[in-house]
Input
Amino acid sequence: MNNAYYKISEVANLLSVSKDTLRRWDNSGKLTPIRHPINNYRVYHKDQLMIFEEFQRISRSNWESEERVSRDHHYTSIEIFAGCGGLALGLKYAGFEHLLLNEIDKKASTTLQNNIPSWNVINDDIHNVCFKEYKHKVDLLSGGFPCQAFSYAGNKMGFNDTRGTLFFEFARAVKEIEPKMFLAENVRGLMNHDNGRTLSTIKSVIYDIGYTLVEPKVLKAIYYKVPQKRERLFLIGIRNDLYNDDLFRFPDPYHAVLTMKDALKKGVLYSCDVPLSLGQKYPDRKKEILNHVPPGGCWRNLPVDLQKEYMQKSFYLGGGKTGMARRLSWDEPSLTLTCAPAQKQTERCHPEETRPLTVREYARIQTFPDNWQFYGSISSQYKQIGNAVPVNLAATVGRSLIRALNKIYQAETNKLRSP
Output
């Protein structure tokens, strides 16, 4: 952070703990807030927080210099499972030129094509797409493959053991193209799926097809100029003939936590307030109940009679269920967006108006620019945006990939120049 003090909400978000946890740490003496010398708010001084690795990373961050990373050469890419373009757009911002984008969903493909007509978008099942004409012509293959359960019948956990899954198609594209690098992203749950066997299979396949996998990492979007508590697993592969241990490193964090106010109001992210757009509406009774929920609150903030009415049988089951009847807060990042803004289990109510977030508000939380239009029904638009990689997160990782490719290009150039 640029200043020496951190709000309680900022520390909770950066450490991925609840405010209740911070209160327990305060009571036990592990971490006690102090009073800000100017406004007397309870805050933490940065020196108190150096016991946490997350804050050590922030203190060492070279975000400003990383933001200035640019390509030394013309770098090309192909993206599969492209969705509505969050990852593709971020990589474009970083400096990649997409030669091809593949997406099976027709409305998402329309979104891609209509926003950037020069893009070569193939709307088809990936099983029908051959990539052999691009062999050795592409620097990066990217995509977020859907993760289905794998079959381990072969026990060798190699390339053929993934046949029938969409990761097999991702690996096939890598084999046919042989790019210098690849980027695959997925849900954080893949890291431990099936007690780690799924990721072990993926690592084995990557080795089989001639690539070295950088140690996979879950990136929290709030560290990378995204006003949302979204987490994604990133897999970076480098072709074996180009690999060295120092070639790629994941990006440094941004120096501030951005909030719903940053997403929807004029400020550091956008030059104006969020434009008006279409959105879903609540049934009258649901709206009446949610009117009682304060910013940052949930069903637990309702009167007991309304808790019972809204929660029904769930009221008696115990547990947190804090996503139910949840209202977002202006002063905190959004919770992870889902494919629909008004699902009972994962409510995302506007901070001050009692309604679901609109399409444009959804897009801003994912850091899409206001001129990026989405096509299809409102439900389809929400789904497209909810499934996307936040654009700023993609751009940040993209610059790290550009930095690595610059090193490869410089090494290749020096080799050609040497006698």
User: Anything to note?
Assistant: The chain is about 35% helix and 10% strand. The chain has three domains: 5-60, 74-257+396-417, 260-387. The first helix runs from residue 8 to 15. Residues 260-387 form a domain with the DNA Methylase; Chain A, domain 2 fold (CATH 3.90.120.10).
